[in-house]
Design brief:
The protein has 160 residues and is α/β, with parallel strands linked by helices. The protein contains four helices and six strands; from the N terminus they run E-E-H-H-E-E-H-E-H-E. It has a six-stranded mixed sheet, sandwiched between helices. Helix 4 links the parallel strand 5 and strand 6. The radius of gyration is 14 Å and the shape is globular.
Length: 160
């Protein structure tokens, strides 16, 4: 199965059936820049749950490689994937953590299959986290598309 690329808004995923919108979060509890702004404009619950998770109010650990699924409608879930260490460069490298993203996407694949859902995302980990889509895209293919999970990646339309 191939990853499909579309111009559009990842917070308004196309197609029918259940959908999981995945994005990368940091491991320090910061929310307020990048793609999360678009998520928060559409739904309050993903940010509220992320902040509660960071405070230890959720059952599973708040750590790199973990994912929190938040249902925002009958057929849409937002996947808060902890794939970024801090929000600044770390030891001379960007905050993105590729192995953590891989671990999180493995969890997303399990949930997508359980929910019979497709997965939708911007080019995760490649904005503020500083990732390289050549690496991230390969991880997305390996952990989602190659195991039979339909994936659509959205590029926001260029502004004139």
């Amino acid at each position: 199965m191939n990853v499909e690329y579309k111009t559009g808004d990842a917070t308004a995923p196309i197609g029918s059936g259940n959908k999981i919108i995945v994005h990368v979060c940091n491991d320090i509890g910061a929310w307020g820049r990048g793609f999360v702004v678009a998520i928060s404009k559409r739904w309050a619950e993903p940010e509220r749950r992320y902040r509660a998770w960071h405070k230890g109010e959720e059952k599973h650990p708040f750590a790199l490689g973990e994912v929190q699924l938040v249902q925002v409608s009958d057929s849409i879930w937002v996947g808060n994937l902890i794939g970024q260490r801090d929000i600044r460069e770390f030891n001379g490298g960007p905050p993105v953590r590729y192995e953590a993203m891989r671990e999180g996407l493995q969890q997303v694949a399990i949930e997508a299959k359980r929910l019979h859902a497709s997965v939708h995302m911007p080019r995760i980990g490649c904005g503020l986290a500083g990732g390289d889509w050549n690496l991230v895209g390969k991880i997305v293919e390996e952990e989602l598309a190659n195991v039979g999970v339909p994936v659509t990646v959205y590029d926001f339309p260029k502004q004139p």
